[in-house]
Amino acid sequence: MTVTLDVWSDMVCPWCFIGKRRLAAALEQEEPGSVEVRWHAFQLQPDIPLEGADAEPYFNAKFGGPERVAEMHQRVTDIAAADGLEFHMERQKRAPNTLLAHRAVKLAADPAAAVEALFTAHFVDGEDIGDRDTILRLVPDLDPAALDRGDGAEAVAEDLRMAGEIGINGVPFFVGAMRVAVSGAQDPEVLRQLLAEARERAAA
Description:
Blueprint: E1 3-9, H1 14-27, E2 35-41, E3 53-54, H2 55-63, H3 66-82, E4 94-95, H4 99-107, H5 111-123, H6 132-138, H7 144-149, H8 153-166, E5 173-176, E6 180-183, H9 188-203
Parallel strand pairs: 1-2
Antiparallel strand pairs: 1-5, 3-4, 5-6
């Protein structure tokens, strides 16, 4: 029996990238094709202009100064390393608005690969994932005309609406079979338990 796993995340959320790695570890224990992962948009920083903002002043203002920002970045970098991720937060020069990136995921032939590419570009390479040309390079199967005319915007808006309806206020957020949910970058075992419970409830 195939079970759906709906994942709300944002490409500027380090815990979402960590959660994606932990989900991959959980799925290694599942039968191939037994879980349909569906990626949904969430915005942690909807206040950022569409053109983005300079990262250093934005994060200093948001989190209480450079020392606090450095502490937070070091902590999440250390945790990410334990999950096989090599973060380079110091390379980030822009704090992007992720609406365009989320639309790109909706339009991509392989949404999971697009999410992975955007996460890596932001947290490892320090690229501006709010920039149109950068997105088109990272997700090469995209039709530039589709991105430019606004395709995918309605799907992103629906994701954001559903997040509000469900009451999601933090990501990553995992929903199994639209029946059971867990929030946060949970360990693989917790995600496997979520999938098992989702199957039981879906079959009931």
